[in-house]
Amino acid sequence: MQATTDPHPLRRWLPLTEFLRAYGAIVGMAAVLLLVGVINPSFLSYGNVGNVLRQSTVLVILSFGLTIVLFLRGVDLSVAQIADVAALAAAALLIHHQPVWLAFVAPVVLGVLIGSLNGVMMAYLGVPAIIGSLGTMFIIRSGEMIYTKGNEPQILFTLPRSITENFLFLGQKTIGSIPALVILAIVVFCLAWGLSALTSFGRYARAVGSNVRASFLAGVDTRLVFAAGFVVSGLFAAIAGVAMASRTAIAVPRGAEPYLLDAFAACYLGTLASRNGTLSIPGTVVGALFVSFLSNGLTILGLGAPTRFALNGVFILLAMAVGALRRPA
Amino acid sequence: MAKTQTEQNVRQALSAAPFALECRGVRKLFPGVAALEGIDLGVRRGEIHALVGQNGAGKSTLVKVLTGVYQPTSGEILIEGRGAQLEGPAAAEAAGIVIVHQDQQLVGQFDVTRNIFLGREIVRGGLLDFGSMRRIAQTLLDRMGARFAVTALARDLSVAQRELVAIAAALLREPKVLILDEPTASLSNAEAETMFDIVRRLRSAGVTIIYISHYLDEVFDLADRITVLRDGRLVSTHAVAETTRQQVIDQMVGRSLSQLFPKENVALGEPMLVVKGLSYKKIVDNVSLTIRAGEILGVAGLLGAGRTELAMTLIGALRRSGGSVSLAGRPSAPSSPRAAKRQGFALIPEDRRHEGLITDLSMRENLSLAAIARFTRWGLLRLGVERAAANDLVERLRIIPPNLSTLTRNLSGGNQQKVVIGRWLLRDARVFIFDEPTTGVDVGSKVEIYKQMTAVARGGAAVLFISSDFEELIGMCDRIAVMRRGVVTATHAARDLDVQSLMSLATAADAQSSNRAFNVSQSAAAKDLGARSSLGAVLSRWGTIAGMALVFAAIGAMAPNFLSPANLLDVLKQGSLLAFVALGLTAVLVAGGFDMSAGAINQLASNLAAGAIAKGVGTAAALIVGVGAGLATGLFNAVLVLLFRMPPFIATLGSMFVAMGLTLLFNRGQALTLYDQPFFFGIGQGAVGSIPTISILLAVTLSALHVLFKHTSAGLRMYAVGENLAAAQLRGIDRRRAVLTSFLTGGAVLGLSGVVLASYSYGASATAVAFDFLISALAAAFLGTSLSRTGELDMVGTTVAALFLASLSNGLILLGVSNLALPGIQGGVLILSILIGVIGKRGIGQITIF
Q: Which residue in the set B354, B368, B661 is minimally distant from A214, CB to CB?
C-alpha cells in the first residue's frame, strides 16, 4: 500500500549530488588555486609551478607511505622523523667522504630497518600504532639531536662540488627539461600505485585493512601484512628524506617534521578526490599537490604559517565531514 | 516425593494467578515477511514461562517487541492488566520488563558492585554511596546463593558468575517480568545446574520469568508452562504436566516441508580427517570424529554447544588444549588458519558478514583471497588469470549479479555465501568445514550451496557440516554427530534419523550430570576468587611501582643531590606542570577516545592567558580566558566526534591544526614575555611555606577530578562508555552525554594547564611545542594505567606517573645524560608502559580512523 510513495525523496536530486560527490572536491580545490592565481598571477607562472612541483616531491613520496599504512588501518607518526634521519644520514655520509652510492643506499636501508622495528612492535607485539609510532618518533628525534650535538645542520653546499655534484643531481638538475625530482616522484608513484593495485601485498593490505578477522580466517598472514605496511612506509619516508637533502643541499635536524601534518592533510584530502571516498595513491597525489600549491599560494599572498596550520586542520575536518555525508546513514 | 508435592501445589496456585504480561494479537511485519502473526500470550504472575521454537520461529522478534526494540505492527501489550506503550528499551524497562541476554556484556574493569549498579547508581549528596550499594549487591547475590565477593572484578569472574551479576543487575530494577534469554547456552553442565537452582529461587521469591531455551529437558524440569512458536505463530501454550516432550517437538517442527536435497551417493574412501580427543578449554570437550573421503558428516547441536569452537580449533584459530588430529594420515596441528589452509582445510565461517566476507571489497577480490599465491608471480598479480578463474566461479556457482566488480556488501545473503564458498574451490582443499552455511539464505541459493557441498564430496574431500537446521542435516549428510555442551554424545547414520529424533537428541540434557555437579560448582565458585595471588599477579600489580622506586633509589645513589629537599621540591614543581596537561588528557581518554589536540589546547590557552595578562586584565580574567579556551576546544572536539561521527583521532588531529593555527595567528610567531606580574607569577613560581603553589593547585585539581571520576555517577558512566560501550548502552547510558562530559572536563583542565604554564614560564613561548607536550602527557597517562589495580586510566596514577617522568628527566640530567636524549627516553617509557598492558593479548595495533 505504501509502494507508491518514494521512500527516498533525496534520490530525485541524484544527478547533481552525484556529480558533486564524484568531482566536487577536485573542482573545489582547482577553484581555490585558480582564485589565488587570479589575485596574484605570478602564482601560476611557469617558473613558480615548476618550483612547487619540485618542492612537493618530498611531501608526495612521504604521503604514499602514510597512505599505505592508513590503508591497513594503522598509522605511522614516525614518517617525518624517518625522512629526517635519512636526510641526515645521507649528508653525514657525504661529509665523511663516503661514496655517493652509499649516501643514496644507506639511508634507505636505515628507513627500512626502522620501519621493520615499527612493524614488529605494532603487528607482533600489538602496541597500538598511534602510541608505538609516536614513541619511535621521539626516540629517533633524540638520536638525531644527540648525533648533531643539539641541532647543528649538516651542510652540503659548502663542500667541494666534486664530492656533492652527483648527489645533488637528483634534487637540483633536470633530465631533458624535466626536473630529476619530478621524475623520481613519478617513478615512486608508479611503485606505490603498482604495489597497491598490482601485487599480492596490495590485495592483502586491502583485505586486512577492511576486515582483519575475515582475512585471518581466510588464511592471510595478517601480522606479516600489517608489519609490511610499516616497512613500506619507512622505505618511502627514507626516499623522501634523501630527496629532501639532495634538493636543499643541507640536512637540518627536525627539518622534515612539518611534513608529518601535511602528509595527513594530503591523505585525507586524497579521499575527497577519489570517487568512493577511500584512500588511494592517486588521490594522495592530488591531496599532496594541493597542500603544496596552497601553502605556496598563501605565502605568495603574504599569509604565513598560522593560516596554513589552520587551513590544514579545516581541510582535514572538511574531508572527514564530507566523507561522513557520503556514507549512507 | 515431598518436593514434587510442593511443586504441584505451587503450580496449582499459579494456574489461578493473574497475568503479569499479556500479548493480544501482536503482529510484526517486516518488508515481505510477517515475523509475528497474531500472538496471544499470557504470562502469569510468579510463573516460569518457557518460550521454545526452532531458529527463525519468531522468539527473538517477540522478545524484541516485549523489550521495546521493535514496535509491533498491530496488537497490544498489557502489563499487570494495563495497556503499555513500549516505545524503546528504556520505556520497556520502566514498565517493568527486564531482559538478561546470553553472554551479557559487563564492564570488565569494574567490580561486581559497580556492574550491578551501573545506570542505577545510589547517590548521596552528589557522591556515589558505595556502602549502600555494596550492601544491596551482597543481598542480591545472597538471594541467588552466589558466593563471590562484591568487590571482585568482573573480568576475573567465570562466564556463569558473570551471568549472575547480570541477573543481579536485572533484579535491582525490580522487574515485573524477567526475560532470561538462553541463560545456559554457554555454561557447562555443572554451571547450568546452579543456574536452574537460581531460577527456582527467583520464582520462590515471586519473580515472573520468561525463560527462553533450546534445551527441552531443562525446560520441562524448570518451567511451569511452555509456549511453542513456529513460523511466527503461537502454536500452543501448555502447563508442563499437560504436555510431553515428544508433543512439543512435534509442534516445533510442524509439518515436514520436504525440500529437495541434491544428495548423491558417493563411494567413500579412506578416512580423511581423524580427530581424537580434541579439546579446547571446556568448550570443546574430548571430541573424537572420523570423516572419510567423500563423506559428509553433520554436526547437529544448538547454539553454544561448542560447534563453532570445534571448527576454529581444527583450523588453528583457537589453540587446542588437548587431543590429536590427522589429515589423510598425517598429523595435523595447524598453528594458524594459514597453516591449516596449506594442509588442506577450508572454512566457511558461521558469521558470513563479519568472518567470511570482506564486505568492502569486490567479489573478485573476495573470491581470490585464499588463493592469491596461485595468481601471483614474483609478487605481481596475474590479473588476467585471476579474472578468468573468478569468472569461472561466478558461472559455476551462478552468483548474481555476475559482475566481478560488485562490492560483496551489496550482494544478497545467498550470493554472499556462494562467494565465501567459491573462495575455497580455487584451492584443492581436502577438508571443507561448513558452519551454518544456509542461515539467512534464500531457497534457491540453499540448493546451490548443497550442490557445491555434494560436488566437493564427490571430488574426494571430507565435509564437516555444522548446522542447527536438522532437516538439511538429515537430507545432506551421510552420518550425523550430535554435539551438546562441548561433547559429541552420539554419531548416527543419517538414514536412521528423522527431524524429531535428531531434535530429541540435541535438546536433551545429560542424564548423569544431576545434583552431584551442582555441589561441585558451588564450592568451585566459592574458592575461585581470592586464591589468585601468584607471583605474576603480584608483579603486574606492583611491578611498575617497584620499578619506579628502584629507578629513584638508583639515581639517588649515583647523584646524591637528587634526593636533596631543594631538588625534590624543584622536581615537584616541574612535574606538576606536566601533570596538569596529563590530567586533562586523561579526562578525555576515559570516555572521549583520543586527544591529539591536548598539547595544542595547552599552548593556545597559555598564549591567550599571557595575552590577557599583558593587556592588564588581571589574573582572574586570564584564568577565565584560558579555561574558556580549553572548554571551547573541548566542545569543538565533542561536536566533531558526536555530531559528525568522526573518529576521535582524526577529529582531534584536525582541531590540533586549528588550535596551532589560532595560536600562531594570535602571537604572530612572537614569544609573549610578561614582566612584573608578581601575583600572576605566584601561581607557577610561588610557594606556600616551602611547597610550590603550583603543586598545591595540582593537588586541588587532582582531588576534584578524582572525586568526579571515581565517586560520581557521571564518572562511573564515563568509564563505562570508554571501556565497554555495548555494556554501557545496555544499561541505558547515554554515550553522547558521557563523551561530552569527558571532552569538556578535559578541555577545562587543559585550559587551566595553559594558564599555569604561562605563569610558570613568565609568558608564552612562540615555538609550537604542542606535540612534545602531547607525548609526555600520553606517556604519563599510559604509565599511570599500570599503577592502578584494574589497569584503567586513573587520575592519581597519571599524576604519580607525570611526577615520576619529571623526576626521571631531572635525575638523568643530574647524572650527566644529555637533555637531548630525554625525548627518546620518554618515547621508550611510553612504549614500555603500553607493552605491559598489551602483551599476551595477541592483537594487532590497528586503530579506527574512518
A: B354
